[in-house]
Amino acid sequence: MHTAKEIMTREIISVEPEMEVIELANLLWEKRISGVPVVDRSGKLLGVVTESDLIDQSKNVHMPKVMTILDSMIFLENPNKLDQEIKKMTGTKVKDIYSEKIVTVNEDTPMSEIATIMADRSLHTLPVVKDDKLIGVIGKADIIRNLYRSS
Question: What average pLDDT does the segment 68-78 reach?
Answer without folding.
Answer: 65
